[in-house]
Amino acid sequence: MYLMALATDYDGTLAEDGVVREETLEALKRLKETGRRLLLVTGRELPDLKRVFPHTDLFDKIVVENGALLYSPDGEEEKPVAPAPPPAFVELLRRKGVDDISVGRCIVATWEPHQAAALETIKELGLELEIIFNKGAVMVLPTGVNKATGLKSALEEMQLSLLNVVAVGDAENDHALLRTVGCGAAVANALPALKDTADLVLVGARGEGVEELIAEIIERDHALCINERHRVPIGEDADGSVEIGPRDVLLIAGSSGSGKSMLVTALSERLQERRSQFCVFDAEGDYEGLEGTVTVGSNLVPPTGGEIVELLANPDNNVAINALGLEVEERPEFFAELMPALSAFRAKTGRPHWLIIDEAHLALPASRDSASLALADDRSGMIMITVHPDSVSPDVLAAVTAVAALGPKAREAIEVLCAAVEEAPPDGLDEPRAHDEVLFWQRSSAAPVRRIRVEKPRQVRKRHTRKYAEGHLDEEASFYFRGPDEEMNLRAHNLMIFLQIAEGINDETWEHHLRGGDYSKWFGESIGDAELAEEAAGIEEDRSLSPAESRDGIAEAVRRRYIAAASG
């Protein structure tokens, strides 16, 4: 379940002439029975609403006075979220002949044509107030207070995200509300301008429209979330942009240094722009320092499930789970123990909107099925990153709806997925034609593979210092000192080991790899650091350097960029 709540306007939406029909009340009850929450968002003042609507206890929260006052029916608690109107404003308005005035806890309301007098009074007193219209009503509130801000305050108390809410309205004061939530709907009797704002225009008017919307929420859920607030761009080609949505399970696959983590970094930025909450399972410390995230765990202290869920309770928190404090063989078990808590939290709140699993072959190994990994049946909103798709649980791969394959083995990555799920490779499957091309396959459709240029991250993120300095690169990504006659086979699975071996080997072996350009090639292809590769290439090409000088030059470049940062 993705859509967790319905927020509805009252007059002209839920009610006709102030009265809610019995069928509409029954529909509201049906929605609550699904576990979803109900919010009422209205321009009315609370005493007036209670007078005309005796069923306020149906709602979890009520936002009155056009966003300025929150009311909790269960405890009858009132909470202003805006200051009270200045008495001088009301007094001067009355002196100007505006007698038809209602003064609430925060709102001052009157009717057209008194908006001119209200604006004149605001200017005379130099107040920070604004006028909001609602089908002839003239509402004066502190600047920036509207139904959207009131709903946001209510959702903060409920630990829900705006993206998981459907809102419905009919008038001018509903524009901000419909633009802010995950899905904005307009009843058939809504103003034409509001219908233009809405994502969904209902066939039914007023209560019948709300009943129609409730049926749509129960039946379609995710499918109502098709606007750009939910669509996450990955890249584009000549035919346009490529996106994923909340129902997708994306597999990002490619060899070391092919740009997988850079793509994930770019996606994290797009998610933050859309206020989509994400949680990264960071197996190798690749996302340490990722902007907009709170990190749990370190290379010395393992993360705990309790603190992860506690942080996720705030919809504004994105969490990076640093798993370096766990042994490789412990990570699947930790992930399996964490998933029930995350699944329960998702069932309750619809968040995190995206679960990002780095090094998915370590967290979701092929040796385990979905039951032993404690994965929920609904795996939507998941991004998995791996060098080895064939080492990921086939049960998990079966849920993949889209693939972004990077690097020289991009085609192979898609073929491996197809073999694992026992289906034929898609049309258009070929190797990328340029180094920055990515193969994108929307597996959930019949579309052929597309070659796209992916999104680039804006943030300047530090290198994956700990992974490359102290981590454990796989055999394919490691460096091997073999010598001119291949008499040795010394493997360096990280940069610290590389420097240690380099210091101990003889000059002939060192220079064999130096003159072959092997160091710059490794830095560029496996470490994925073009700048370090370029600096090393300059040293490799300088024939005036002695073996000791070239060793020192490359060692200094590595230490400057990685070792010092990792130890700090």
TrEMBL record:
GO molecular function: hydrolase activity
Organism: Sinorhizobium chiapasense
Keywords for the protein's UniProt record, in alphabetical order: Hydrolase
Protein name: HAD-IIB family hydrolase
InterPro entries assigned: AAA+_ATPase, AAA_16, HAD-like_sf, HAD-SF_hydro_IIB, HAD_sf, P-loop_NTPase
Pfam families linked: AAA_16 (PF13191), Hydrolase_3 (PF08282)
Highest taxon of source: Bacteria
SUPFAM superfamilies: HAD-like, P-loop containing nucleoside triphosphate hydrolases
